[in-house]
Every structure is written in C-alpha cells, then in structure tokens.
C-alpha cells in the first residue's frame, strides 16, 4: 500500500530532546551553513570565517581565504593593510591567484551540490513510482509483505484458478476419450477447440498433458483422472 507523505513541515525553534535527531539535524544544517558561506564568498568576494562546535564538542570550520587569515584580521582590527599597501608585486600575484583558485573551487562545489540535489529529487521520484507500481500490482510482491485482505483475495483467486484448471482437464479428457486413437497415429490432426482457462487475471491458458491409458478389470483401455 502506498504511504501518504506529510510533506514539508515547519520545525519549532527549540532544542531537540532526541539525541539522534539532534545529531542528524546538526550535520545537515552545518553543511547548509558552509554552502551559503561559500556562495557568499564566490558571488560577493567576501572574506568569511566560521567556527562551529558540535554537540559532541567536535570543531568544524570554514574560511575564505582561510580561517586563520580572517581571525588574525578580526583580532588585529586591521582593515587588510596588505591590500591597501602591498609590499611587492609578487605578493599581489600570489593573492590574486589564490583568490581565483578559491572562487573556481567554490563554483565547482556549488555545481556539484546542485547536481546532488537534482539526483536526490530524481531518486525520490523513482521511489514514489516504485511504491505506486507495487500498490497497483500487489500480487507480484512477496507473500510475507501482504496484508490480510490481500492474502484472502489471493487465496480466493488461486482456488478459482484450481477449479478452472480441473474443469479444463475434465473437458479435454472427455474429448480425448471420444476419439482416443487420434493421439497414437503420426500425422493425425485434431481440430478440437481449446477452452481457455479463466484463472487469476484471466491470462493463463492451461493445457494438461494427455492421460496415460491403463487396463481396467475387463482388459479394456481406460483413462485416468487428474483432479
């Protein structure tokens, strides 16, 4: 059966009591925070430094051009003198090359994250299609995953199938008994109609094998019964 999704819900801004949910939420929000900081650096050329302590007291950081450079600049309250009064042209080239490299890497990271998001949505769509397909063709799934109404319906359909197979075998047996020699001569043809079986889904044609002859008490050929 297809499960109904609750959709996107608003999260109350209070500390989570469940430790497992807290860890998962921290990991997701931390990645989102660093992604937004990276985008800010790429789009605006901002210098950003972020330090985060997890609930387990682990340290995570993000910095552009580096965490150390941002912290040093903040502690010294020095408005980036190396940009206003460069000491040499070499330092300017190194700084420009490093900034270009960081911007390129940030752009690639953004593209990869966007592609990952697209693939996640595609995976969700495929899972939804799979659930819908399983709900429509539930009899093709494992028996141990079926619910009681489905099991009752499957049992009833299989019993009907068995009855239809038995009736078909009886009809074929009667037709064969009226003309038994037609099965023992090479080249003989039979134009007897084949009665289709209507079983589960009504798609199966059951053709039972020809019965083997045996002698009855009067040494006359007789034919066995299948069901």
UniProtKB/TrEMBL annotation:
Keywords: DNA-binding, Nucleus, Transcription, Transcription regulation. Residues 6-66 form the MADS-box domain. It is found in: Nucleus. GO terms for molecular function: DNA-binding transcription factor activity, RNA polymerase II-specific; protein dimerization activity; RNA polymerase II cis-regulatory region sequence-specific DNA binding. The keyword Protein biosynthesis does not apply. SUPFAM superfamilies: SRF-like (SSF55455). Its main location: nucleus. Coiled coil: none annotated. InterPro entries: MEF2-like_N, TF_MADSbox, TF_MADSbox_sf. GO terms for cellular component: nucleus. It holds the Pfam family SRF-TF. PROSITE patterns: MADS_BOX_2. The keyword Transcription regulation applies. CDD domains: MADS_MEF2_like. GO terms for biological process: positive regulation of transcription by RNA polymerase II. This is Agamous-like MADS-box protein AGL62. It comes from Pyrus ussuriensis x Pyrus communis.
């Amino acid at each position: 059966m297809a499960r109904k999704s609750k959709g996107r819900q608003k999260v109350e801004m209070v500390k989570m009591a469940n430790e497992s949910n807290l860890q998962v939420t921290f990991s997701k929000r931390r990645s989102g925070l660093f992604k937004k900081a990276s985008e800010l650096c790429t789009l605006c050329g901002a210098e950003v430094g972020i330090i985060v302590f997890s609930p387990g007291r682990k340290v995570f950081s993000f910095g552009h051009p580096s965490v150390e450079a941002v912290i040093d600049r903040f502690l010294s309250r020095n408005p980036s003198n190396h940009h206003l009064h460069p000491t040499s042209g070499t330092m300017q080239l190194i700084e420009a090359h490093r900034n270009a490299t960081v911007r390129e890497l940030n752009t690639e990271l953004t593209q990869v994250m966007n592609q990952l998001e697209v693939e996640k949505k595609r995976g969700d769509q495929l899972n939804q299609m799979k659930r819908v397909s399983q709900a429509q063709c539930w009899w093709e799934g494992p028996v141990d995953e079926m619910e009681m109404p489905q099991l009752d319906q499957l049992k009833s359909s299989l019993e009907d199938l068995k009855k239809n197979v038995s009736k078909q075998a009886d009809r074929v047996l009667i037709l064969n008994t009226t003309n038994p020699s037609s099965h023992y001569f090479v080249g003989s043809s039979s134009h007897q109609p084949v009665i289709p079986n209507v079983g589960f889904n009504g798609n199966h044609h059951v053709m039972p094998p020809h019965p083997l002859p045996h002698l009855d008490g009067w040494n006359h050929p007789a034919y066995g019964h299948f069901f």
